[in-house]
Each structure stands twice: as C-alpha cells, then as structure tokens.
Design goal:
The structure is a single chain. This protein has a single domain, classed as Alpha-Beta Barrel (TIM Barrel), CATH 3.20.20. It has eleven helices and ten strands. α1 crosses α2, α1 runs parallel beside α10 and α5 packs parallel to α6.
C-alpha cells in the first residue's frame, strides 16, 4: 500500500482509504464491518473515513470498536460534521456551538482523544465563515483535531476560506472531499485548480460511481439482486448513472481494463489515482474481498494512451458541468 501527502501538509495517508458511508451500522452488520476494517489493516490501509451523520451516528461507533486495540499513531481517523444529528435548531450546521459539540460526540463514539482530520461536511450558508473557521482552529489548538478539511465545497468557498484563514492567522484547510470518477469530473475545471493553488489535496469519494464502474450493471437489464441499485433504501444514489447510454459506454471499458490486467473496480480506482491532485481514493465495502480487490489499485500506473482511450469511450457520457458540486442524488 502506497501513501501520499495530503495536499501540501506533512500528513501522509494511504492512497486507498476505507470509508463507511452506507455500510457500517446500516447496510452490513458489525461482524462484516469489522472484517472489512481488519482486512484493510492487513493490506496496509491506515486511513479510515466516517461522519457523524452516517447511520445516524452508528457508523462512528462501529468504526471505533473495529479499530480498538490498534496503535493509535499507526492509523489516521477522519470524520465530519454539518448534517442534522438531533432535533434541535443547533444540532446541525457549522456554528461554533454545533462544531464543538459534534466533535466531542464524535470523539466519544470513535473512542479516541483526537481525530486526524475533521471536515466540514458541506458549506453552511447561515453561519459566518469566520465563526466556522475559528471554531475549527480552536479544536486544532486543543489537540482534538490535527487538521481541517471540507467536503463538496465550491472553488469560490474554498478560496474565501483560505483568504480568511490567512488574514486571521489560522491553519489552512488541507483537504477537500468531492465526488470524482471516470464518469463524474465536475471538480476538474474549477475546484482542482483552486485547491492546487492553495495546497489542498483531494480525498475523492465514489471512484466506482456507486458501483456502476464495476461493470455489474448491464443496459436493458434489471440490477442484480443484492446490488446497491436494487436496494430500495440506497438505490437513489446510483440511479443517475443507470441510463442505457452510460451502461453501454462502461461496458466498453472492460477490454481496456483487461488489457491492463485489472478488474473493472481496480481500473476505476487506479484511474482517479492518476490525477496528481488526488491524495486518496475513498472506497466502501460490504465484504472483505471487495477491500482486497480495490486495494490492488494502489501503485498502479496507467499509460497516457490508456487514459486517452478511456476518454474516447466515455466522451458522450462524462459529466463535466462545473456549476455542479455533486450529483443530483448525492450522499449526505
């Protein structure tokens, strides 16, 4: 497993990072979740990403128990706040009150004294950005969060945050967590150049486009039983990719992946890692073998001709609209 610096910070993270959105505490039971975490550790994955909103806070609890007994210095634990986690008016957003209380609650659930990266899960249009950044800064100064990041912020929001942090003498944001895959390239035009300018690394989620890039979905056919698209609860997140033109184009990638000696999943993960602005590909898994398959993408180098071939196959279905920061049905 290879490690990369997160942006221009000194923090190194495994370039394959295990996340637990939709899985831990929800889609799979705790035994399966723990097995996935243990497999990840065995493969050299040291970075784990979660959020308080995942499975209504249960995902953090499961991850905390799964990592119990691990040398704390040997893993990097990331979590996030923003989405509602309670009925109160202050149980959401990026006010000082919610950030501080949410961080303390996450630390309890994760059974740790600090998180390596604490992330703003979305941009809060109601809370003053100065208040948000100062609250994060205080957590850093207290040692409860070592670094600060954001998720799905626009280029303009990121640039404003950097400007304010510089003016107020705060540590800068070091990471952004956007959706990115062969099919969804919205961040390439504005977000990545802005982040590159300010030394902010990308931890990209859904490199498999919600499983579509594994090639298991076929045009004109119902989703396989047990797949994410067939799940009534989570299927909404993948339906935007389930059109016949997209599925037909994805089928055209299979011979390219085979020529590279990769499974479709490995090929998709390796593709996002070719972008030098990407610090890690965030994967999810409901079975240990999925972790093993995805982890094999670490260290893979794809030749320029391969990348060009991918673009030719997908040219008519790639989403590049920079006015969008996430898909119509995006994760929380």
């Amino acid at each position: 497993m290879e490690h990369r610096r997160l942006g221009r910070s000194g923090l190194k993270i495994s370039e394959i990072t295990l996340g637990n959105w939709l899985t831990h505490g929800s889609q799979i039971d705790e035994t399966a979740a723990t097995a996935c975490v243990r497999t990840a550790l065995d493969l050299g994955i040291t970075t784990f990403d979660t959020a308080d909103i995942y499975a209504a806070t249960a995902a953090e609890e499961v991850l905390g128990r799964a990592l119990r007994g691990q040398r704390r210095e040997g893993v990097e634990i990331f979590t996030k706040c923003y989405w509602p986690v309670g009925p109160g008016a202050n149980d959401r957003g990026l006010s000082r009150k919610h950030i501080v209380e949410a961080c303390h609650a996450s630390l309890r659930r994760l059974q740790t004294d600090y998180v390596d990266l604490y992330q703003a899960h979305r941009f809060d249009y109601e809370a003053p950005l100065e208040e948000t950044l100062r609250a994060f800064e205080d957590l850093v100064r207290q040692g409860k969060a070592l670094y600060i990041g954001v998720s799905e912020w626009t280029a303009e929001q990121i640039a404003e945050a950097v400007e304010i942090a510089d003016a107020m003498g705060f540590d800068r944001i070091i990471s952004n967590q956007p959706q990115y895959s062969m099919l969804w390239r919205v961040i390439e035009e504005r977000v990545i150049p802005t982040c590159d300018e300010h030394g902010i690394g990308q931890i990209v989620w859904s490199p498999l486009a919600q499983g579509v890039l594994t090639g298991k979905y076929e045009p004109g056919k119902a989703p396989p039983e047990g797949s994410r698209a067939a799940d009534a609860k989570v299927g909404m997140f993948v339906r935007g990719f389930m059109t016949d033109d997209i599925l037909t184009a994805v089928a055209g990638l299979k011979p390219i992946a085979a020529e590279c000696g990769l499974t479709m999943a490995q090929f998709a993960v390796a593709w996002v890692l070719q972008n030098p602005s990407v610090s890690a590909a965030l994967i999810g898994a409901s079975r240990p073998d999925q972790v093993t398959d995805n982890a094999a993408a670490s260290g893979v180098r794809l030749e320029p001709e391969v990348l060009e071939h991918v673009d030719k196959v997908l040219v008519d279905v790639i989403e590049r609209d920079p006015s969008k920061t996430s898909s119509p049905k995006t994760r929380p």
